[in-house]
């Protein structure tokens, strides 16, 4: 049940997106989210449709696990994190991570912490390697990948016609566990 999924490191928390997140997401969307992640400006109708699809994926055990990234004492919605399992452009055992933070929350290490939590989630679901695909011009996202222990792999397609930089991180270590510390396996 998605309502029982709650991942936290004590600073950042990931919980499945819900309809309660629609307004906060619309308020947080900016030009960078539209350019790098959303593909177009959101409207209440499009964001509600997206969140319904995300909720359906959780309810049916679908391949996309969409989280709200939350921080602060009130666990304010600061952005989103998606873990994509079983995508045609991925090798068996790989997952793709896609994330975006709202402007007021960038530059605080939240995305790096969210990536670490998403890696922990993917590992617990049986994934062996995480992939982050980044437009070569999106320096901030590439920096998050590197800070999170991902290494550059290649410049290639990732599910569409766009050529993206691929960063990868194994989710297993010598003892079969991933570290809670980004960059250390």
UniProtKB/TrEMBL annotation:
<dbReference type="InterPro" id="IPR016181">
    <property type="entry name" value="Acyl_CoA_acyltransferase"/>
</dbReference>
<dbReference type="InterPro" id="IPR051908">
    <property type="entry name" value="Ribosomal_N-acetyltransferase"/>
</dbReference>
<feature type="domain" description="N-acetyltransferase">
    <location>
        <begin position="12"/>
        <end position="172"/>
    </location>
</feature>
<dbReference type="Pfam" id="PF13302">
    <property type="entry name" value="Acetyltransf_3"/>
</dbReference>
<dbReference type="GO" id="GO:0016746">
    <property type="term" value="F:acyltransferase activity"/>
</dbReference>
<protein>
    <submittedName>
        <fullName>GNAT family N-acetyltransferase</fullName>
        <ecNumber>2.3.-.-</ecNumber>
    </submittedName>
</protein>
<keyword id="KW-0012">Acyltransferase</keyword>
<dbReference type="InterPro" id="IPR000182">
    <property type="entry name" value="GNAT_dom"/>
</dbReference>
<keyword id="KW-0808">Transferase</keyword>
